[in-house]
Design goal:
Elements (H helix, E strand, L loop, with lengths): L5 E4 H20 L9 E4 L5 E4 L2 H7 L5 H16 L4 H20 L4 H22 L1 E2 L5 H13 L7 H15 L1 E3 L2 E3 L5 E7 L7 E3 L1 E4 L11 E10 L19 H24 L4 E4 L5 H9 L3 E3 L4 H11 L3 E2 L11 E11 L2 E9 L5 E7 L2 H23 L2 E4 L3 H15 L3 H14 L1 H9 L4 H13 L5 E4 L4 E4 L6 E3 H20 L2 E4 L30
Parallel strand pairs: 7-16, 10-11, 10-13, 11-12
Antiparallel strand pairs: 1-21, 2-3, 4-17, 5-6, 8-16, 9-15, 10-14, 14-15, 17-20, 18-19
Helix pairs in contact: 1-3, 1-4, 2-3, 3-4, 3-16, 4-13, 4-16, 5-12, 5-13, 5-16, 6-7, 6-11, 7-11, 8-9, 12-13, 14-15
Bound molecules: adenosine-5'-diphosphate (ADP) and magnesium ion.
């Protein structure tokens, strides 16, 4: 090996990786469920984030251990694929590793554990399919229940009644019917945020909101039957790349030079007004003189609009973004019933409403402070995603750990049909599933042992949907509590967690080159989060 490389082999490497991965699960665990706690994260610049979202927490923590990083990855994958269940995926992966370690300590080879886990992860989605409830993707009542469950574990839960209706409205309005069901492009829903008002002031705008003001005070602030020119070149005279020198010998030449500029800008504006545009939305700058001429022609103009907003506007208004002004024709203009500047707290924003394409939708999230608004926005994103999940794949299961408890029971029965050490691995997978209801219980101040005994008893009696009722602090029928989640979220959790656990278990050799020393055992051996301090730092610490 190259000089400076280090190696960490066999059981040591394995133990070390499992430990690091489990630590990550320990961190997010306490935030699971409606009684979970939030985390306050401070980055190196002192910026504070307050969140309950697993993926966000892990994004903000500077994790360096390679195995721990794999766990962070699964929260990202889960977030991208289904939008919710990020904490659960990490908790399940941590628990799978915890259970695996017990077997490895009893001299069961990791490969056998991985094989057993794989068998279990093939069986579980099939069982999930059997117990899942089919719903109609058009049934708003179901969709609202799904959105509400997702919000239940977040800061916005108190207002979930109102907000879930808003989320469902937004998703339904952008859903496109296809031959086999519905399809949703979540990017059709723009989520904007502005602190300074209560969360209940959050509103749904049928159109696009631009966080920019009308560029000139002499322009109209409200245009009905808007014809919108979408321009992505500057309405300015281009500066030359190099310094040009003008030799002026006579004051009249200065005037002539300025007149020239003036005329060029005026002709730009004329081109826009000639085809009947009464609104100009420009991705680049607009010169003062051009602004003046636009104002004189009663055109409402906005400048320096984000590229992503330009694209959304084009889609919403049916307009085309034009780079060369000479190409602009009447056909390229977008249409909307109303373009209006409105005051949003201390800012003025431009609202484009009643667009040609009714699918354009914006949710304007409000909150008392910046931190609250940020977290509200993240929670709205989760809720939008779960509603999208169900509209696209209309099957749901019951939350509160009921589904996991049932899958656990089923795997235990399945394990009995297997023999040898594989049976042990499948049993361990069943135990790992129980971690979800048990963590929910623990976070709600319930006794984990009592909960486990009661849950097993109920599921043994065929009560499929008994789970942990966090709010009442008891084991009860969670279907009756209307706690529903998309089946695809559970599937994704199983997939992500099994993959990550399998990958970590299969490693028995860590070779690190150069500066990155092979990570040693975090200090304190199998202790609690005490070892966390080492994670963001150099591995070469003792
Ligand atoms: N009212 C409730 N009672 C019990 N459990 C609930 C309730 N609402 C949501 N849950 C459960 O909380 C868990 C989700 O918690 P959350 O903190 O959002 O984590 P995740 O990032 O995994 O979505 C799910 O298992 C869900 O079933
Ligand atoms: Mg959630």
């Amino acid at each position: 090996m190259k000089e400076g490389s280090s190696e960490n082999k066999g059981r040591d490497a394995q133990r070390n990786n499992i430990f690091a991965a489990k630590l990550i699960a320990e961190i997010v665990k306490t935030s699971l469920g409606p009684r979970g706690m939030d985390k306050m994260l401070v980055d190196s610049l002192g910026d504070v984030t307050i969140t309950n979202d697993g993926a966000t927490m892990l994004k903000e923590i500077d994790v360096q251990h390679p195995a721990a990083k794999m766990i962070v990855e699964i929260s990202k994958t889960t977030d991208n694929e289904v939008g919710d269940g990020t904490t659960s995926a990490v908790v399940l992966a941590g628990s799978l590793l915890d259970q695996a370690e017990e077997l490895i300590d009893q001299n069961v080879h990791p490969t056998i554990v991985v094989d057993g886990y794989r068998k279990a992860s093939i069986r579980a989605p099939k069982t999930l399919d059997k117990i899942a409830i089919k719903v109609s993707p058009e049934d708003k009542e179901w969709l609202t229940k799904i959105a509400k469950t997702s919000m239940a574990s977040k800061l916005i839960s108190r207002d979930s009644e109102q907000l879930s209706a808003l989320v469902v409205d937004a998703v339904v309005s952008v859903a496109e019917k296809t031959a086999d069901g519905y399809r949703i492009d979540i990017d059709d829903i723009k989520v904007d945020k502005k602190p300074g008002a209560g969360i209940t002031q959050t509103q749904l705008v049928k159109g696009i909101v631009l966080d920019k003001e009308v560029v000139h005070s002499g322009m109209p602030k409200r245009i009905e039957s808007a014809k919108i020119a979408l321009i992505n070149s500057p309405l300015e005279i281009e500066k030359t790349e190099f310094d040009a020198k003008l030799n002026i010998s006579d004051p009249s030449q200065i005037k002539q030079f300025l007149d020239e500029e003036n005329t060029m800008l005026k002709s730009m504006v004329d081109k826009v007004t000639a085809i009947g545009a009464n609104v100009v939305i420009c991705q680049k700058g607009i010169d003062d003189i051009a602004q003046h001429y636009l104002a004189k022609a009663d055109v409402l103009a906005v400048r320096r609009v984000k590229e992503s907003d330009m694209t959304k506007l084009a889609k919403a208004t049916g307009g085309r973004i034009v780079t060369n002004l000479d190409d602009l024709t009447e056909k390229d203009l977008g249409k909307a019933q109303l373009v209006e500047e409105r005051k949003v707290e201390e800012d003025k924003w431009v609202f484009v409403e009643g667009a040609k394409n009714p699918k354009a939708t914006t949710i304007l999230v409000r909150g008392a402070t910046q931190k609250v608004t940020d977290e509200a926005e993240r929670s709205m994103h989760d809720a939008l995603m779960v509603v999208k999940d169900v509209v696209e794949h209309p099957t749901v299961v019951v939350g509160g750990g009921a589904t996991e408890a049932e899958l656990s029971k089923d795997l235990r029965e399945f394990a009995n049909t297997l023999s040898g050490r594989e049976q042990l691995a499948v049993q361990k997978y069943a135990d790992a599933f129980e971690s979800i209801p048990l963590v929910l219980a623990e976070n709600s101040g319930m006794d984990p042992i009592d909960t486990q005994v009661e849950l097993r008893a109920k599921h043994g009696q065929g009560k499929t949907w008994f789970g942990v009722n966090c709010l009442a602090g008891k084991v009860s029928d969670m279907e009756a509590e209307n706690v529903f989640e998309p089946a695809v979220v559970k599937e994704q959790i199983i997939k992500s967690a099994t993959e990550a656990a399998g990958m970590i278990l299969r490693i028995d050799d860590v070779i690190a080159s150069g500066k990155m020393k092979a990570p040693p055992m975090p200090p304190g051996g199998a202790g609690g989060p005490g070892g966390m301090g080492g994670m963001g730092e150099d591995y070469s610490a003792p």
